[in-house]
Amino acid sequence: MNLTNTPCSERVKRLEKNGYIKGYRAVVDKERMGLALLTVVQVSLVATAEQSLVRFNDAVRNVSEIESCLMVAGSFDYLLTVRTRDIAHFRLVLGEKINKLPGIHQTSSFTVMEIVKEPVG
Fold first, then answer.
1. Confidence check: pLDDT of 21 > 60
2. DSSP string, 59-76
3. Residue 73 domain flag
4. Torsion sign, CA atoms 47, 51, 55, 58
5. Is 7 a domain residue?
6. 108 phi and psi angles, rounded to 5 deg
7. Does the residue 47 lie in any domain?
């Protein structure tokens, strides 16, 4: 960028202030944390009225094993990524937490064999 430290620092601060830079975070090695299994779960709800969506969204935030939750357009309603120790732990999380979320009609699970590309940060 051919800028000295001061102008570069000022530019970064301006980008932060204007909301272009939303934050900074550490990238944790999930396998070293004992969460080696990544599973993608498709979720279909019984109903998609606003109240049903709000109840589901609120409940999902309380399940620590759910890494991300994306509402999608298509043949199902949500796509979850779930981190667990192993398949036995995933089975427990699916049965005791995910399938007990409000409004669940059906789930389909897919175990990730290899992460080819993932978001940075």
1. yes
2. HHTT-TTEEEEEE-SSSS
3. yes
4. positive
5. no
6. -135, 130
7. yes
Closest among 92, 47, 87, 40 to 68, alpha carbons compared: 40
* Residue 52, C-beta contacts closer than 8 angstroms, at least 6 positions apart: 45, 46, 102, 103
- Token digits for 1? 């960028």
Domain assignment present for residue 21? The answer is no
What own/partner pairs with CB < 8 Å and gap ≥ 24 does 32-35 have? 34/85, 35/83, 35/84, 35/85
Number of domains in the chain: 1
| Span 33-77, pLDDT tens digits | 999 999 999 999 999 999 999 999 999 999 999 999 999 999 999
Pairing of strands 66-71, 37-45: unpaired
Q: What is the extent of the structural domain holding 80?
A: 37-111
pTM of this prediction? Answer: 0.84
CA distance 56 to 68: 13
Contact 28, 39 (CB under 8 A): no
CATH of the domain at 60: 3.30.70.920
Q: Which tens digits make up the pLDDT trace of 91-104?
A: 999 999 999 999 99
